[in-house]
Write a structure and sequence with these properties.
- The chain has two domains: about 1-65, no CATH class; about 80-140, no CATH class.
- It is about 60% helix and about 0% strand.
- The protein has six helices and no strands.
Length: about 140
């Protein structure tokens, strides 16, 4: 599945927990993946199914990168530089100051979460856009 995703646009479609995918969806699919379950519990929680499939793709990608001698597969996502990350923290800090929440502890916790997340440029832009809109809203108040 991972090889296919690296070379093509792929959509994963999940059915309902009770009925699975409709016959119409299955017919349209290029490939169908089923997850094993027990007779006692024939359906799998949707969140669990998504997690299992995502883990499988991640393990395949890790295996592909290990075989190539790479530390990580490049999915075309550019991680942030230290300066970009610092700009994001400064924007959060100024937003919190506008809201009367000038608390270094909050910023430090956000910093820890984002450092672990290893944000991409796309994710940074999402947060910067959100902060910008929240600042506009705060100025109207």
């Amino acid at each position: 599945m991972a090889k296919l995703a690296l070379q093509n646009r792929v959509a994963l479609i999940f059915g309902s927990e009770k009925f699975g995918l409709s016959q119409k969806d299955i017919i349209k699919a290029d490939r169908v993946v089923t997850l094993p379950s027990s007779r006692d519990f024939p359906s799998i929680n949707l969140a669990s199914a998504v997690t299992m499939l995502a883990l499988q793709v991640k393990l395949e990608l890790d295996d592909m990168s290990w075989q190539r001698g790479e530390s990580d597969i490049n999915l075309g996502l550019k991680n942030l530089t230290k300066g970009e990350t610092e700009r994001l923290y400064q924007n959060f800090s100024s937003l919190f100051k506008m809201a009367g929440m000038d608390n270094r502890s909050i910023i430090e916790k956000i910093r820890l979460v984002f450092d672990r997340a290893n944000l991409t440029e796309r994710e940074k832009n999402l947060f910067l856009g959100l902060i910008k809109e929240l600042k506009k809203f705060a100025k109207k108040e």
